[in-house]
Write a structure and sequence with these properties.
The complex is a heterodimer of chains A (413) and B (107). Helix content of chain A is 25%, strand content 31%. With 413 residues, chain A is an alpha/beta fold. Chain A has three domains: 175 residues, FAD/NAD(P)-binding domain (3-Layer(bba) Sandwich), CATH 3.50.50.60; 115 residues, FAD/NAD(P)-binding domain; 79 residues, 2-Layer Sandwich (Enolase-like, domain 1), CATH 3.30.390.30. In chain A, the strands form seven sheets. Chain A has a five-stranded parallel β-sheet. In chain A, strands 9-16-10-11-12 form a five-stranded parallel β-sheet, with helices on one face. In chain A, strands 23-24-27-26-25 form a five-stranded antiparallel β-sheet. In chain A, strand 10, helix 5 and strand 11 form a beta-alpha-beta unit. The longest helix of chain A is centred in the last third of the chain and has 15 residues. Chain B is α+β, with helices and mostly antiparallel strands. In chain B, 17% of the residues lie in helices and 20% in strands. Classes of the chains: A alpha/beta (413), B alpha+beta (107). Chains A and B meet through helix 3, helix 8, strand 23 and helix 9 of A and helix 1 and helix 3 of B.
Chain lengths: 413, 107
């Protein structure tokens, strides 16, 4: 029997690679190895429905356990790959096991960036990425009263919304002048600041955290450099992630802002692909090499890599899209807005229906939508198909985006 | 317990007992029905749980919300008059025997 494909990482990307390989008719052995002691599950609910008790462990599993047996996928959960021997085409596990591969897929993800501040080690200062961490957050939220969220990005704000919905006193501390500033335009940031504030969340932008105060080993408050103090019995930190590049780097693979891959999602070694949060790839929609942290990116790259491994070399060209759920509002994002030089909008914040269109050198590159789902879905088609839409048309409600999108032919991304 | 019948593109039907309150998507995943991908996990961001609802049941479903309607516009197989996202259909006793047909592809 051939050695088949070894997939390192049991997140959305690793899971989808295995599933897509079988859908693509791949008949060789598939070994799916991950450090987490769980079968693959969805991460997005961990900062949304899971801590609210709306979703449980079973409902967030990507597939039931039986799926892996039914599809001859050897799932090794709770096992860590510690080295790749490229010459021997073999991965080694810390348990001493080793597996040969013909194709190796690194879907090793990212880990939380941690704070290196005085008091950061106190009990009650929590990070969240994994299900186990999510279960701790859910548990600690029950008895906490004063919650400080460090980081006003997607995860921080989602957790703030959850904590607020649970009736807690919540403060969000964001270092930059506005919320989600890496991802969205000021109009959207302002909308979300207003949304959180209206629900009772205290939002502080431009906040420079200097230390966590504690007593008896437990966190009691968060101190800013300007001397402001916020009481806290629970601090949730969401200040971004760093890609897990060590395994690839130790194997001599090229590293940039992630594991560097080409348009086929292959590393310098043709037999090794890297996908998902850990992979820096060329993105035609960004006009640059980028690394993305999203479900779409994980699932589409997995599908692409699987097709290539199954024997039809396949260029990755899926349009990026994202979402975040905060309170009862879903923000839908299509495309990559980096480098935009023009912004127009449809709708307005007062009506809670708002889309922001981002242009670069006259071309539509991204759309962010609040309660305008058709703008988002048509936006995916318009951007993917490079349909000409002027800023004037984008701002004009009478211009039917669906007609514009369908005139360009169907595009599924 | 209500039953849901999933019909593959080839015409093979499988009848599954689904507890009321469960979505047609979740029941498909739990029971190993191929042809439902559910990439976004049921939050109306992708169209990979698209189904064609049998006509005799279609009008008995609560109508699709705007978010679902929008997603159906990007389905991999073009939407039909009875297209729905299976993540948005909650099974009830009233829907016992619900028949859904799966499209040729979801991505």
């Amino acid at each position: 029997m051939k050695s088949g494909t070894v997939i390192v990482g049991t997140g959305q990307a690793g899971f989808q690679t295995a599933a897509s390989l079988r859908t693509e008719g791949y008949l060789e052995k598939i070994t799916l190895i991950g450090e987490e002691p769980h079968i693959p599950y969805q991460r997005p609910p961990l900062s949304k429905g899971f801590p609210l008790g709306k979703q449980d462990l079973e409902s967030i599993e990507l597939r039931p356990k039986q799926f892996y047996q039914d599809h001859q996928i050897d799932l090794l959960a709770g096992e860590k790959v510690v080295a790749i021997d490229r010459a021997a085409k073999q991965v080694k596990l810390d348990s001493g096991k080793h597996f040969f591969y013909e194709s190796l897929v690194l879907a090793v993800g990212a880990r939380n960036r941690t704070l290196s501040l005085k008091g950061a080690e106190l009990d009650g200062v929590l990070y969240m990425r994994s299900l186990d961490e999510g279960a701790v957050v859910k548990d600690r939220l029950e008895n906490a009263q004063d919650i400080v969220v460090v980081g006003g990005g997607f995860i921080g704000l989602e957790l703030a919304a959850v904590a607020c919905s649970l009736g807690k006193s919540v403060t969000v501390l964001e270092a930059l002048p506005r919320l989600m500033s890496r991802a969205v335009a000021p109009l959207i940031s302002d909308f979300y600041r207003e949304l959180h504030t209206s629900k009772g969340v205290k939002v502080v932008c431009g906040a420079s955290v200097s230390e966590m105060e504690g007593s008896g080993g437990k966190v009691r408050g968060v101190l800013l450099t300007d001397g402001t103090r916020f009481p806290a019995d629970l601090v949730l930190v969401g200040v971004g992630v760093v890609p897990n590049i060590e395994l690839a780097r130790n194997a001599g693979l090229r590293i940039s802002n992630g594991i560097a891959v080409n348009e086929y999602l292959q590393t310098d070694d043709d037999n090794i692909s890297a996908i998902g949060d850990c992979a820096e790839h060329p993105c035609e929609f960004a006009g640059a090499r980028i690394r993305l942290e999203s479900v779409q990116n994980a699932a589409d790259q997995a599908q692409c890599a699987a097709v290539t491994i199954a024997g039809r070399r396949n260029v990755y060209r899926a349009l990026p899209w994202f979402w975040t759920d905060q309170f009862d509002i879903k923000l839908q994002m299509a495309g990559i807005s980096n480098g935009h030089d023009c912004i127009v909008s449809r709708g307005n914040a007062e009506s809670r229906k708002l889309s922001v269109f981002y242009f670069k050198e006259g071309h539509l590159i991204a759309i962010d939508s609040i309660n305008r789902p058709l703008d988002h879905m048509m936006g995916r088609k318009l951007i993917a198909n490079r349909v000409t839409l002027t800023p004037e048309q984008a701002a004009d409600e009478s211009v039917d985006l669906k007609k514009m999108a369908s005139s360009s032919g169907a595009a599924h991304s | 317990m209500p039953k849901v019948v999933y019909v593959s593109p080839a015409g093979d039907a499988r009848e599954i007992d689904v507890p009321a309150g469960t979505t047609v998507m979740a029941a498909a995943l739990k029971n190993g029905i191929d042809g439902i991908v559910a990439e976004c996990g049921g939050v109306c961001m992708c169209s990979t749980c698209h189904v064609f609802v049998d006509e005799q049941f279609f009008d008995r479903l609560p109508p699709a919300q705007d978010t679902e309607e929008a997603v159906l516009e990007i389905s991999a197989v073009e939407r039909q008059p009875t297209s729905r996202l299976s993540c948005q259909i909650k099974v009830t006793d009233d829907l016992d025997g619900l028949i859904v047909r799966l499209p040729e592809k979801q991505r």
